[in-house]
Specification:
Layout lengths: L1 H9 L5 H9 L3 E6 L36 H16 L3 E6 L9 H11 L4 E8 L6 H14 L2 E9 L3 H6 L6 H14 L2 E7 L7 H13 L4 E5 L3 E2 L3 H7 L8 H13 L6 E4 L9 E3 L6 H14 L6 H8 L1
Parallel strand pairs: 1-2, 2-3, 3-4, 4-5, 5-6, 6-8
Antiparallel strand pairs: 7-9
The structure holds iron/sulfur cluster (SF4).
Iron/sulfur cluster binds next to loops.
């Protein structure tokens, strides 16, 4: 808690870039890797429709084509980012689909291929119900052999398990809690994804989601607004009037609530996500993501808010 208060004095939002600078002593860039993966929530193993907002790319919009090998993708991106930002350290990020939904032997091969010089961390994005010990064992083994740190990104989206059903996540809150505890046992850092304006959630749900993530002491959070993408169940619901268009003002308010209830030691990877315009029906309220981001940051300043300020009151008083 003392550490929390200290951080609160320093910054209103603990951004991921600052976290990385503190952890690695310099700027570190995350390089997305595209592998031809799958998802049990799309292929029928859990469900066949996927999450109602998922457009099928498994969220890997910024990736290079998966015809390139992992090594080729990383080298290409390292070359580009390295020259552009004079960067020397990188994180290899298995971003799209469900990063651990493949045989363990293939997973091992993939992470090994990503363990290049200048890679200081390997990050794997996956579903909470797709995280078994053999995958974490493989990561730990590689980490011990190379010194490369390991991290896991988990989709939760909301702590409201009724909403999780409505968005067809195919898992509940308990699976997420189990996955975080498991990652912590291995000493890997965990980042959780949350969508703050799901139509079935209210502000209390957002607060509870942040509080649960704080209680679990996740290391990072990635916040998203609900983007309505073409050819998704959500788009069909929107077009038939079953869900309303997301409102920017409401998202900003919810982001502030979330931040107030997020530990000041949890780094914020994103305040709002992005989706390509060409596949979107409604993307970030049809505003630029940057303007929404700037509004959240300036509202924190204007209202004199700090990350974690509500946790301090509830725990200490
Ligand atoms: S878990 Fe990810 S890849 Fe799978 S359906 Fe949901 S959003 Fe899409």
């Amino acid at each position: 808690m003392e550490q929390n208060l200290k951080s609160q004095e320093k910054r209103r939002i603990f951004f991921y870039s600052d976290y990385l600078k503190e952890k690695y002593g310099e700027k570190v860039y995350k390089l997305p890797i595209n592998i031809a993966g799958g998802c049990p929530n799309r292929d029928g193993r859990i469900a066949s429709g996927g999450c109602i907002y998922c457009a099928g790319a498994g969220a890997g919009y910024d990736c290079l084509p998966d015809e390139l090998s992992i090594k080729e993708q990383l080298e290409k991106n390292m070359d580009y980012i390295g020259k552009k930002y004079k960067a020397k350290k990188f994180i290899a990020y298995f971003q799209n689909y469900t990063g651990t939904y493949l045989p363990v032997a293939d997973f091992k091969k993939n992470i090994k291929e990503a363990a290049l010089d200048n890679i200081v961390e390997i990050s794997v994005s996956t579903r909470p119900d797709c995280l078994a010990e053999p995958y974490l064992d493989a990561m730990l083994e590689l980490s011990r052999a190379t010194g490369i740190k390991m991290s896991i990104e988990l989709g939760l989206q909301t702590a409201n398990y009724h909403t999780l059903k409505k968005i067809n996540r195919g898992h509940g809150l308990a699976e997420f809690i189990r996955a975080v505890i498991l990652c912590k046992k291995y000493g890997f850092s965990v980042c959780a994804h949350a969508i703050l304006n799901l139509p079935w959630d209210d502000r209390e749900d957002v607060k509870e989601t942040a509080k649960i993530l704080s209680a679990l002491e996740v290391d990072g959070v990635k916040l998203h607004s609900l983007n309505i993408l073409k050819d998704t169940e959500l788009a069909r619901m929107y077009e038939s009037g079953k869900v309303e268009e997301p409102k920017r003002e409401e998202y900003v308010e919810r982001a502030l609530i979330f931040l107030r209830n997020t530990l000041s030691t949890t780094s914020v990877h994103r305040l709002i996500g992005r989706a390509p315009e060409e596949i979107s029906v409604v993307e970030n309220f049809n505003n630029s993501w940057r303007s929404v981001y700037d509004e959240i940051v300036s509202e924190m300043e204007n209202r004199d808010l700090y990350q974690g300020m509500d946790i301090k009151e509830e725990i200490c008083l």
